[in-house]
Amino acid sequence: MTQSPPPAPDAPPPRLVAARGALLIVDKPSGWLVHNSAWAGPKEATLVDWLRTGHPGAVPLHRLDRGASGLVAFAADKTAAAALGEQLEHAEKRYLALCRGRLKAPVDLSHPLVIDGTEKPARTAFSLLAHCPDPRVCLVEAQLFSGRRHQIRRHAKHLSHPLVGDVKYGKGPLNRAFREGYGLHRLALHAHQLTWPDGTRDRAPLSGALAETVTALFGDGVLAF
Fold it and tell me: pLDDT tens track of the chain, all 225 residues?
């Protein structure tokens, strides 16, 4: 039997951001799987299931971790998936992340990651958006140049700036402090901008507990970009 997805405490329903021809852009809430895994866990309702209620042939072009939120691109059908997937490969992908410590300077990190036993090249560029009076954290934008599993999370850990709320690669005491102090029960990672090769830009603003936490730490103006 299909189960409902376990959303984060503050999670709104998914939102269709754009529909341009065969391209569909969805704003995924934290807590939702993009699709079920063939090898892990019980089956549950997913973002694919939600989108297919209105677009029966929808195919995801990439993935976003369950705990993360933000933009996920779909093709309306399998026929369009290959061409749109190639466009996505050349699109500019930007994420917001709440990281431990203080990133002192931009970092363009090329550091291979082991995926299924094989080392794969991976590149992520990190830039500081804001420091705050709390020295434990900073707000960072990460740009992906490759799409390896957990890439931003693993690269952030490699830099000793793991993401807040990351139970796999992060720091337990910091995660607990933000759960207790801010009610943040999720991974502090949000896919906020996709810029396509033709210059079209899709955006998804922060919402819920992550937006409230960022505003509390950095002030109202920090999200106005």
Answer: 333 444 444 457 899 999 999 999 999 999 999 988 655 555 778 999 999 999 999 999 999 999 999 999 999 999 999 999 999 999 999 999 999 999 999 999 999 999 999 999 999 999 999 998 889 999 999 999 999 999 999 999 999 999 999 999 999 999 999 999 999 999 999 999 999 999 999 999 999 999 999 999 998 877 765
Locus of tokens 């209105």: 54
44, 138, 157, 188 from 96: Cα distances, Å: 27, 11, 15, 8
Residues 6+ apart with CB under 8 A from 100: 136, 137, 160, 161, 162, 163, 164, 170, 171, 174
Superfamily of segment(s) 15-223: Pseudouridine synthase (3.30.2350.10)
How far is the C-alpha of 211 from the C-alpha of 217, rounded, in Å? Answer: 10
Domain ranges of the chain: 15-223
- pTM, two decimals, is 0.91
Pairing relationship of beta strands 92-100 and 137-144 according to DSSP bridges: antiparallel
Q: Is 116 a catalytic residue?
A: no
Of residues 65, 77, 108, 220, which has the active-site annotation? Answer: 65
